[in-house]
């Protein structure tokens, strides 16, 4: 087995453990009535989802199964979303792969969730509607099974691994960590996983579509990204010598590896590049939908009450804040390439908290202050 690990992973893991995480989720203590009202408004739908074991995005419906392992921790259960293989083949074959995926992995603690892809196609896990389906799945189990949204993990095998390659970067703000098993990366860009630990696994003899070579190359890419940004890009790359497409469950080691991490919804540095499926928001940043095009990038960091935009390809940008991120009783400064573009005191607003919670569907991304910057 050839195994490549981040040389700084140990030190960074220690940081990951002390990142402020949710005490029953990040902002609930600040606006409990807002959160409770939001839950009441959506409770009937989430309950119906759990009873039918389906989630919907518009007219599209996705089935799922789940198993619960271990006792529930005081801060809520973990959740592992595990995507099956298959692809552009008969529905019966994908059904068989779904059944197989249900038995592949067993976390020590958490809800092990296996969705059934709503399509029978090569890109069945990363078509545009998948984002909304996964968001609905996370909300449903957070409400119905007391899953902590800061402990949600993404994984997938073969075609499911293809999905991890695409979904992990564009939805990195949704997951505590991700692991890709035996999938092909295609042309995905990995800069967005800066704050989401990422493991990749492939058989050394898995030569179909050059998976083994492509995965090893992406591991080296992550090495380079971490060398340039040593506080980010926690990762592991595993190329298992002598193993073909099936890795004989050696890759199950990814489950306890992911479990050591919690999501930090408020990282001090964000690298956000739009992928083929564009997004309006990422962590504490948001852009107008009409401006979002593949390749457009924002690089931002914050220190105390200073927010620095190193790069911003948009004419407008919204920066969302709360008291877990900055001291809202003092002025906040925003600089763009060293030039001051905003300085002022922000007034927290329950209306802003209500609006952001409704838009993002995640109490960790409920913000009560916003700076709208025009560049």
Order of strands across the biggest sheet? 1-9-8-7-6-4-5-3-2
CA radius of gyration is 20 Å
| Number of DSSP helical runs | 8
Low-confidence stretches: 1-25
End-to-end C-alpha gap: 50 Å
Per CATH, the architecture of the largest domain is 3-Layer(aba) Sandwich
| Record field, number of beta strands | 18
Order of helices and strands: EHHEEEHEHEHEEHEHEEEEEEEEHE
What's the rounded overall pLDDT mean?
93
Query: Which structural category fits the helices and strands?
Result: alpha/beta
Shape: globular
CATH superfamily of the largest domain: Alpha/Beta hydrolase fold, catalytic domain
Classify the fold: give the CATH topology of the largest domain: Rossmann fold
- The total number of structural domains is 2
Biggest sheet details? 9 strands, mixed
CATH class of the largest domain: Alpha Beta
Helix content: 25-40%
Q: What fraction strand?
A: 25-35%
